What does this fold into?
Amino acid sequence: MADIIPAPDHAEAAMLALTYPLIVLSGIFQAMGAALSGLLRQKLVNPWLAAFVAFLPILLVLTLCVLAMPFPLPEANSFAKIHWYDAFGGVAGSAAVLAGLLLVQKIGSGPLNGLTVTGNILASLALDCFGLLGLPAGGFRPLPWIGGAVMIVGVIAITLGAGKKDDDEEDKGIVGKLLFPFILVCGALQAVGAALNAELRQAVTNPWLAADLSFVPVASLFLLIFILRPMPLPTRDDVASVKWWMPTAGLVGALAVFTGLLFIDKVGAGVFNGLLITANLITAVVLDHFGWFGLPKTPTTKLRLAGLVVTVIGILLISVGKGG
It folds into this structure.
């Protein structure tokens, strides 16, 4: 008797076909989120108030997701497995959002996202290599690190391709010199936050509850800092100038988090991050070119395009080296 071949699951095949466009869309929205954050901060004046307003919709959506999808419920001893520092995964990850709020209008979306992504990937490679924060030690593999070095070259080209800005004279002091290292550190903290969130998810079981718990300290921290440092306050005209879609900055940027929760196990971490980051960087350069969302216009020069291509090659080397 011939073997019976099961009929393909058309619903699963259709979902898989939609997965890749959704990941690309998440990368596009991630870049838009940084630009929207800068615009929200410009309108609300106070960066801590803007950060709290940006994170509040994320918290509300995650809470609704927990109520709509409460299963699997964490076991009684689940919370005992959580390390005290796991709850700060969201706080560490929010450093990149804070960098966007403060600096995207100053240096542009392309350099900001490029530096953040580079810091994130280099920190991720180190965490994987040495098995830090509960991750299994993968050992040293040269190809991903070569890809990281290639990415750095690409990001430098993207940044230099922006040309000299009018306010560059103000950046020759110590603050200006520390600007790009600060963004790299924020990107690295994003990777640390992801590792802490993974530990939290493993302990709590429910991914939506884990994400919700990680964002509660973030929103609380920004609210506390705003209470302690309320000046400058936005005027009535400032608040009135905030469009309804501006407070979605955090939610739009966090779409990649939701997509990762749903699809990273299906397509693999290498493919997921490769598609996400490539879409992010291309969108960032396009936003700069057209000056959308209040960004200063930065024409896409040949050097910037070359930097973008080199950065994508670095991402591909990392994805291939780490495997799906």
About this structure: The first helix runs from residue 10 to 44. The mean pLDDT is 80. The chain has 13 helices and no strands. Residues 168 and 226 are 29 Å apart (CA to CA).
